[in-house]
Structure formats: C-alpha cells, structure tokens
Amino acid sequence: MVYTKLHHWRRFVAAAFLLPLLAASPALAQESHGQRGAGEVSKVTQEVSKEIYSPFCPGKTLAMCPSGGASDVRQEIQILAKEGLEKQDIKEAIIDKYGEEFRMVEPPAEDNYALLSVLAGALVVCLAAIWFFAARRRQEGAAGDEVTADDQMTSEDRAYLEELRGEYMD
C-alpha cells in the first residue's frame, strides 16, 4: 500500500513538471513551421513600422502616424509577420502596395562631410578669436595702461575709504 501512494506521488510530481512543457509545445510547433510567437510578431511589426514612411501622414513613419489608415497598415504588417515572412519581405510587400515614395532611404555619408567641415572651420575661428583676445589682454597688462581705482578717487573719497577701513578694523 505504501508503494502505491508513493507511486501516485511520483506521477503527481512528474505531471506538475511536464504540464508546462506540454502547454508550450503548440507555440514551439508554430515557430518550427515558420510562424512566429506573439513577442516576435510585435517586435517585427514595430521595427518595420519605424522603417517605412506613412502613406497617410507625410514625413512621419508608420510608427509615429496616428491615423486609422496607418493602424490598418500596421495590422497588415502584423499579419505578414505572423505568417513568418522576413522583415525585408514585409517591407517590400508594403512598399509594393503603397508606393516607392514611402521607402526610407539613408542619406549617403558624403552629405555629412560638408557639415563636418563647417563645424571644424567654426572651431578654428573660435580658437583663433580666443587666442587673439588673450594676447591682446596680455599686451595691455604689460604696457601698464591699466588705471587703478586709487588713481581715479578724489581726496574726499580717499578720506571716506580710510574712515570705513578704520571702523572695519576696530
């Protein structure tokens, strides 16, 4: 009798560990037949939506466009992703349907060279201006052209200043 209770207990423990594996097996079967899980579908949908301009909101991607038409296109992308199409194939299908003007094209790297040269030139001009003004200030200090505050004070101002110093020192 003890053997049967122990035997039932083993079955219970085995079932407790095997049930989650069996529940996951339909999802594994879907992925192995070219279909994706919900997380993967969502990720692909978001990525493709960020890489295609919206036909309904000029200048915005599908991910940024709030229109109902853009929502429908995102649902189309989701359906294609569930069917197991690759990201590039989904983009091509959507662009074929709505038009080539909605394809996002990376600007060539040469476009950045002009901007970098302007920034480098501006940096050189700023450094030259700093050097020029620092040199000018050093020359003025060496020449002794600086006028001190004591030279510009009247005798009344000096007397008042001495009185304040005397009060402060006490």
From TrEMBL:
GO terms for molecular function: metal ion binding. Residues 1-29 form the signal peptide. The keyword Kinase does not apply. The keyword Lipid biosynthesis does not apply. Residues 18-160 form the CcmH/CycL/Ccl2/NrfF N-terminal domain. Keywords: Heme, Iron, Membrane, Metal-binding, Signal, Transmembrane, Transmembrane helix. InterPro entries: CcmH/CycL/Ccl2/NrfF_N, CcmH/CycL/NrfF/Ccl2_sf. The chain crosses the membrane at residues 113-134. Possible subunit of a heme lyase. Belongs to the CcmH/CycL/Ccl2/NrfF family. This is Cytochrome c-type biogenesis protein. It comes from Persicimonas caeni.
